[in-house]
Amino acid sequence: MLSYLVHRILIMIPTLLTISALIFIIIQLPPGDYLETYIAELESQGANIDPEKIQFLREQYGLDKPMIVQYAYWVGGLLQGDMGYSFEYSLPVSQIIGDKLLFTFLVAFASVLFTYIVAFPIGVYSATHQYSWADYGLTLIGFLGLATPHFLLALVLLYVFNRYFGISIGGLMEPEFIDQSWTFDKILSVMQHLIVPTIVIGTAGTAGMIRRLRANLLDELQKQYVVTARAKGLAPLKLLIKYPLRMSLNPFISDIGHLLPELVSGSVIVSVVMSLPTTGPMLLRSLQSQDMYLAGSFLMFLAMLTVIGMFVSDLALAVLDPRIRLHGGATK
Amino acid sequence: MIEHRYPPAELTRDYVRAGFGLVVTGVPLLSMHASPVIMWVLAVFAALFAIFGVRTAIRHMTIVRVDGAGIAAVGPMGVSIDWNDLGRMALSYYSTRRDRTRGWMQLRLSGGGRTLRLDSTVEGFRDIVAIAARHAELKRLELNSATIGNLAALGIEVHTPAAAAEPGRA
């Protein structure tokens, strides 16, 4: 395992460096920079701009330097926990993000938990009771979950929870707790408000995962070794847990890598609709305004989630099933 | 008695990996005033690369001896296991690639309260595994499905109690 860990970490380092370079280049690709967008905005409003002030700002933000220097400055800062400076907010990025990262993690974590807790038993039940009424019903719910737009489900659930449970619309806590220190009541309020976004963001992932787990488990259940084990009198539950379920878990685990960034980036629209204080809406705004350090830091955060997610899922797979696969996935 | 060693080319590669990892994680750790979280992550990674470097050095000095009585890794932190004491055998396969190719195997043998680990980079790895599998078979040890699959990939057939019901063997 030590060799595997070392190999895996050594791959992560150039991967993150390459991603950071790509992010920086892509953010710089549109013509102009934040200041030019800002000047155009002011000019359209009829304001006079002092060229000396613009030159001063350009030097101050390092926008007059070559791209490679700006990149080195940004990456060096990231290593020291300094995510750069937001032009739009005139504040350090870390200061702007603040609690938003915490709430983003909270919503993402709750959604992952929801996805796994709901998808796992339903997927197993659907596969072991194939073509039963329950299987058809759960499959229908799964397809509905896949097909329903996030924002629509969010609006419906907001109405239901407000109408029948008295939970205020939008946000991740009651308005009176915003900017207050953490108390038990505030935590309780956050927990209550977490239910709707968790269901909304987790539903699509849950539906997809149910389908994948069902399909994988069905594949395994139809293999000859299961028939042999049944013929030998192995108890159905023991057989299910010991062999087919374990084999069908691999794609389930490898999904962790994609799940984390998808939950964060996929929740942007939901966050806007539900006024969630997460990083999503800010990412959208920073990309629109070419606020490069803010946008770059967000995208780097998403990339890190992907890389960490893949690392965790690869480690879990290496522990659970350290098996050689030959000829395009067939296990010899 | 047959003796095996880790080949110098493989050891050199591992030394390079350990050194590169230590430089990449250690230099920022020592020269920058990073945030505590980043410092901790870098410190853990640096420690991991240092341990890997030490393990490579130990392997450099280790000779694996196999005979009819048992198997021994002779060198610093050496371990020996008598075949009579063999209580567990596991053969794992690791790959960092998506298609799971170009990986390596690790043989883990336990017995008498001791554990011996050998990577497939050691000379004569297949022969060592074949001998260990034969003794596991004689002792009727239960092998997990991954081990049985990996043995089959090396062309080694085993007939243990669990093998009959294992996936891919029915």
Structural overview:
A two-stranded antiparallel sheet of chain A has the order 1-2. Chain A is mainly α and about 325 residues long. The relative contact order of chain A is 0.13. Chain A has a domain at about 110-290: MetI-like fold, CATH 1.10.3720. In chain A, strand 1 (about 85) and strand 2 form a beta hairpin. Chain A has helices at about 1-30, 35-45, 50-60, 65-80, 95, 100-130, 135-145, 150-165, 185-220, 225-230, 235-240, 245-255, 255-265, 270-275, 280-290, 290-320, and strands spanning about 85, 90. With about 170 residues, chain B is an alpha+beta fold. Chain B folds into two domains: about 1-60; about 65-165, PH-domain like (Roll), CATH 2.30.29. Chain B is built from four helices and seven strands; from the N terminus they run βααββββββαα. Chain B has helices spanning about 10-30, 35-60, 125-140, 145-155, and strands spanning about 1-5, 65, 70-75, 80, 85-95, 105-110, 115-120. In chain B, the strands form two sheets. Chain B has a four-stranded antiparallel β-sheet, with no helix packed on it. Chain B has a three-stranded antiparallel β-sheet with strand order 5-6-7. The interface of A and B includes residues 3 and 76 of A.
